[in-house]
Amino acid sequence: MLVHLGTEPGSKAYRLLNPTNRRIVVSRDVVFDEDQSWNWNGKEDANSGAYEILFGKFGDQGTQEDVIMEEDHDEPWDFNEAKAHKELIVACEDEIESIIKNKTWNLVDFPIGAKAIGLKWAPHAWNIKLNEILHGLNSVKCSKEPSLYRRKENNHLLMVAVYVDDFLVTDSDLAMIYEFKREMAAKFKMSDLGKLT
């Protein structure tokens, strides 16, 4: 059994702790069993005191001491591997089309003599744009969890959880959810995946 620690920055993968060998596992292939939990005080925790889980300003920040990162490499490692998979090329083309339609950023010619900075700026640009739009829709970012937004109207509270470019929306009033979807669809090219199962 692994313990869910959160999401891996810069990816759509989960960070999981294996308490028996004190290793962090990063994987997208995860099934959550909410009826189970790790017995932190039981016999299974033979290394009690050998490590400490730290909870930082914005939730879990990983483990202290020597933890080896393992990654799930079922997905292509780089572009050379990815380009062999047609479905990944189509997904990339769809993503670029969405970026252009939503005007997330402007593509410009690379300046002569300049060095590339990589894609580190892309998530930052997306977060800034998304935050501006959600703020404009009267949504407030949670101070404890930066991927959670809330909007209160009358006696209803709309909650929006953001995971990269996916949204989980909930409210006690279905009409408010539909209104939020319409507002977001006016700003972004969106797909509604329906109810969470």
Provide an overview of this structure.
With 197 residues, the protein is of the alpha+beta class. It folds into three domains: 3-71, no CATH class; 76-109, no CATH class; 120-197, TATA-Binding Protein. It has helices at residues 79-82, 86-101, 121-136, 174-187; strands at residues 3-7, 14-18, 23-27, 53-56, 59-63, 69-71, 140-141, 148-153, 156-163, 166-170. The longest helix has 16 residues, at 86-101. It starts with a strand and ends in a 10-residue tail after the last helix. The relative contact order is 0.09. Residues 44-73 have low confidence and may be disordered.
Pick out the low-confidence regions: 44-73
**Which CATH class of the largest domain is shown?**
Alpha Beta
What is the C-alpha radius of gyration, as a whole number of Å? 20 Å
Number of helices: 4
Distance between the termini: 22 Å
Secondary structure: helix percent: 25-40%
Could you spell the SSE succession in H and E letters?
EEEEEEHHHEEEEH
Q: What proportion strand?
A: 15-25%
The CATH architecture of the largest domain would be: 2-Layer Sandwich
Mean pLDDT: 76
Strand runs, count:
10
In the residues, how many domains can be counted?
3
